[in-house]
Design a protein that fits this description.
Layout: H1 8-12, E1 18-21, E2 25-27, H2 29-39, H3 44-47, H4 49-53, H5 64-69, H6 71-78, E3 87-98, E4 106-121, E5 124-135, E6 143-152
Antiparallel strand pairs: 1-4, 2-4, 3-6, 4-5, 5-6
Length: 153
């Protein structure tokens, strides 16, 4: 699922509104283990089901940075490409908060709201995108962030 491309004017008209919502992503133990291996973060609450079962989480949970890293894939689903754009890059985050654990076996998805868009320089637009990662069946989201991107035309 990929959002259909839209004009810059149409993109800018979404100011204050949701740009889109991604499909659900499976957060399997294999995905958690792979992330732990690649990042060398092998804390027991992520990769040791027996030890994690005795923790306050009752089982393994995804790394917060794993959930954060899924934003790129989620954004490809939900945020429409802007016609004529040559590149889009991460500029950073104004804020990131990890609000609820993502338990192994859960599914997550991203919702994206355009909070600000402004001309940054010649042929460059800077967007601030409100981002929430929902956990299927859970009342609290996994994370909330303000993601800043730069699009060059």
């Amino acid at each position: 699922m990929t959002a259909a491309p839209i004009s810059l004017d149409a993109y800018r008209s979404h100011l204050g509104r949701e740009l889109g919502c991604s499909r659900w992503f499976d957060v399997t133990q294999d995905r958690i283990d792979s992330f732990g291996h690649v990042t060398e973060d092998r804390q027991f609450i992520h990769v040791d089901p027996a030890a994690a079962a005795r923790s306050q989480f009752g089982g393994t949970i995804a790394h917060g940075f794993l959930t954060l890293s899924l934003l790129s894939a989620m954004s490809y689903d939900a945020i429409p490409a802007i016609e004529g754009a040559r590149t889009g890059i991460n500029y950073g985050f104004n804020s990131i908060r990890f609000l609820a654990p993502v338990r192994s076996g859960s599914r997550v998805r991203g919702r994206f709201t355009l909070l600000d868009v402004k001309l940054r320089g010649e042929n460059q637009w800077q967007s601030t995108i409100g981002t929430v990662v929902e956990i299927e069946g859970e009342p609290k989201p996994a994370l909330a962030a303000e993601w800043v991107t730069i699009t060059t035309f």
